[in-house]
Amino acid sequence: MKNISATLATVWRIAIPYFRSEDKWAGRGLLAAVVAMELALVAIDVLVNQWQNRFYSALQASDWDAFVTQIWIFIALASTFIALAVYKLYLNQWLQIRWRQWLTRHYLGEWLQGATHYRMQLKGDAADNPDQRITEDVRNFVEQTLTIGLGLLSSIVTLFSFVIILWGLSNAAPLHLFGSDLMIPGYLCWGAMIYAIFGTALTHWIGAPLVNLNFEQQRYEADFRFNLVRVRENSEQIALLKGEGAERARLLDRFGFVIGNWYAIMSRTKRLTAFTASYQQAAVIFPYVLVAPAFFAKKIQLGDMMQTASAFSSVQGALSFFVTAYRSLAEWRSIVARLDGFEMSVDAAANLPAHEPAIALKVATGGRNIGLEQLCVNLPNGTPLVALGAFAIQTPERVLVTGPSGSGKSTLFRAIAGIWPFGTGTIFVPEKAKLMMLPQRPYFPVGVLRDAVVYPAAPGAFEGASVRDALIAVGLPDLAERLEEEGHWNRMLSLGEQERLGLARALLHAPDYLFLDEATASLDEPSEARLYRLLTERLPQATLVSIGHRSTLDAFHTRKVTMVKHGAVHVLSDGGAPVEKEPSAAR
To answer: Which terminus of the chain, N or C, has less C-beta within 10 A?
Structure first.
């Protein structure tokens, strides 16, 4: 019961925000219409149950006129049922897509808020494959929540509607055994209840492991698909290294988890299906066994027996909702658990600075310099990496940061950008200052080249002539004629071309502070020199901070600082002297 209540509480927490959102009136209206139609369908079932008594009684009495009348009544009931069923499905699907649209936007907003998506990866949390959770899990959650919720509502209303009918029929058709009537009030209702309780208990006992098995199956499927995508994205490197054999073995190894877990699902589903199929088939004949003695004793007519069997089937079916929907319930609970885990991971990453010692990013009002004070940059596991007491990047100087690989240069850039919270200390950034970070391998969204260059600005934020001029300036005149071409630019262009494209992006955005993390490392030295001169000419007021290892970069910077080992951490040495006094490394 604790697990069920926890699942329902989670479902409520995930579902209710939509019905309180800006789309609440449309959502509530569609839900009310669907519920009303579901109740109307139950009412049709009640009318059909009463019609069965009259129809079979007319057959038994060979009453042609009554038979024809009942045929017309059935046509009216069937036509109403079909219309209600069609529009209930239509409105249900309409509600599904609106609800899914809102929930997808909500999750995308939370996941892509700030650097939450990046911090989730750094923390190594359990929210594997966010892409699957935002696509498949959201779709399945909305669809199955409505299906199961409406099914449960229908079962409850059906139970209360037909139990009254069945109770009256129990008195009209008493239990007839060994030539005598046994007056047991509502015995048919008690029989349906005992039958359903027995079936529900056994179904849960057999099918309980399916919840975890379905959870794991979704995880293994998503993990396998994710690795297939990684092979596609890195196909050039794999081909150059002749790594196809290794990738095939690795992918088949991951697919082995999919197969192994699927066999476990098959085994458990076979047992569950064997029981539920037996249970449902026995339910067809069970009511006839109970009322047949009264029928053959001439206590009731054929119509009474058929109505009794139909009412018993409706009551038993309502009570057996968990038996018939158990597999769907198991899948639904695994989906709820995955969305719950995703929400908790997003929340933990978004609130990481508030829950743990973190680097504070503050606005420096009235100043033009970036200042680092008592800063200690740690790895996610708490190991100290970089420490310094005070350091300032002044406007509009050109700073070159050098040092051995792994000394924390790129991580220091990430901290200044505000996406690396691990550590202590304060980073002051001037108010309204525009910062841009250019990594060695820049990112370009798949799509039109012009939109990829101006990213993250909105498409159309820069005129085509400006984009074309920037491309020509960085040495990509051929691409300047392909602005409207669509493509996967990270795959279509060489790394050197991607770096030039990244610098074109910087020229367009004209940041106040431009950080280049080996952003020209793939270019030859003459090309690198031309591009640095271009940055100096086109962005004269910008502060330039570069990470690089080539000595030729010295000529394009007015200040050089080096990351050097000092005890357990690395510190910045400015012109041969450490930057003031470094703080104690904080864990």
So the answer is: N
